[in-house]
């Protein structure tokens, strides 16, 4: 609808914080590498655009990275998804077949904005085609827009052991 938002709503700030879910699997892998969201916290206004980056850090050369990103779609919406510069020649996957979100970046974004989970962010080099040196590497950049007042965590969680069905 074409309603007018009260000025207080226009001034409302959105805040997101980063939370990394810990599981026995991610803890076991922590010695070899980790993923983090940058910036760690941010305040944005309703309608304001921002970009967050998922940064990979590894102690050894790696072939890729993968994760899910959870967020509150009532507070922020994803607008773009771009693989990091160092992974331009790698395979880039997103979404899942079961809900059609693997069909395109646009389908993955649309599904995420409905469910609050950007699923199966994966990039990798096939053996013999390249690798990432140890240290920090930008895995993916995610464009977002503030949608509503409130707080949301941007939570990196391991891939689902069993694909979720649509609507779950």
Strand content: 35-45%
Total helical segments: 3
The value of Rg in angstroms is 17 Å
Order the strands across the largest sheet as they lie in space: 3-1-10-5-8-7
Order of helices and strands: HEHEEEEEEHEEE
* Poorly predicted spans: 1-31, 162-168
Sheet with the most strands, sense and barrel status? 6 strands, mixed
Shape, principal axes of CA atoms:
globular
Specify the structural class.
mainly beta
The percentage helix is 10-25%
- What is the straight-line distance between the termini? 29 Å
Number of strand elements = 10
Overall pLDDT confidence: 79
Q: What's a quick, concise take on this entry?
A:
The protein is mostly beta strands. It is built from three helices and ten strands.
Description:
The chain has 168 residues and is mainly beta. Helix content is 13%, strand content 45%. It contains 3 helices and 10 strands, in the order αβαββββββαβββ. The strands form 2 sheets. The chain has a 6-stranded mixed β-sheet. It has a 4-stranded antiparallel β-sheet with strand order 2-4-9-6.
């Amino acid at each position: 609808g074409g309603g007018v938002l009260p000025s207080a709503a226009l001034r409302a700030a959105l805040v997101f914080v980063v939370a990394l879910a810990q599981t026995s699997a991610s803890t076991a892998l922590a010695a070899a590498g980790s993923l983090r969201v940058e910036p760690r916290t941010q305040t944005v206004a309703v309608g304001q655009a921002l970009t967050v980056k998922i940064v990979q850090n590894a102690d050894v050369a790696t072939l890729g990275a993968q994760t899910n990103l959870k967020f509150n779609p009532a507070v922020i919406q994803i607008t773009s998804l771009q693989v990091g510069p160092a992974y331009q020649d790698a395979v880039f996957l997103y979404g899942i077949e079961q809900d059609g979100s693997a069909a395109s970046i646009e389908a993955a974004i649309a599904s995420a904005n409905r469910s609050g989970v950007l699923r199966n962010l994966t990039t990798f080099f096939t053996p013999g085609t390249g690798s990432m040196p140890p240290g920090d590497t930008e895995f993916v950049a995610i464009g977002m827009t503030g949608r509503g007042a409130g707080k949301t965590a941007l939570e990196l969680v391991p891939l689902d052991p069993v694909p979720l069905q649509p609507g779950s």
